[in-house]
Write a structure and sequence with these properties.
By secondary structure, the chain is mostly helical. The chain contains twelve helices and no strands. Helix content is about 75%, strand content about 0%.
Length: about 240
Amino acid sequence: MASKSAVSGRLGRRLLWHQALHDPAREPRNRSRWLPELRRWQVERLQASFDRFLRDPKRRPAAEFFLSDLYGDRDFTRRDADIARVLPMMQRLLPRALLDTVTDAIELGALTHAFDLRLAEALQRLAPARKRLDEALYARAYREVGLPRLRDHQIDLIARVGRGLGYALRSAGVSTLLALSRGPAKLAGFGELQEFLERGFAAYATVGDIDGFIAEIEADEREAARRLFAGEADPFGLN
């Protein structure tokens, strides 16, 4: 098992990667006209894929947190800036498991954005005059980008982050730490990170079977990836 200092070092490297990917000066594909449309379409697709969770009162809060804070189009710049500033404190105060999970969450966000940049680039090649994205065009761009092993790793991260946050944020020690740090966090200027963890804590309070919830999401995303790469119709099972 890696030490807290090793995990903190990995977190620092993931933050640098995340920041570089989102910097338009270093990564001009952030200015792609396809990027906002791609994100809009993916948010709608994920909401449709999560429909059964969103209709379940017990799983709805966790599903909404998943969509807004882990795998959606939320701007994580402030949260990640908070993490960068408080790395030494995080290493001392947060349980190693939660620190590891926060690191995985940063990596998931960076990898997802890296794929979005590649998809936007592929969409510009495939449909330079189009303005709206649909499932067929998305599937063509997905296969154009390829990288099935990285896609598989992306889904691994989704599962690890979902389970890790679920268990860590439901532990008594973390709940006490969050309650005690609420005021100091805002005064110190890293309230966004505190709010992220508190949203997760509240969201997982009612979900019940964490493993079952995450397993369903993981299975759905793996099947969608398989169908996309195979060129099958209705890859997300929404039609």
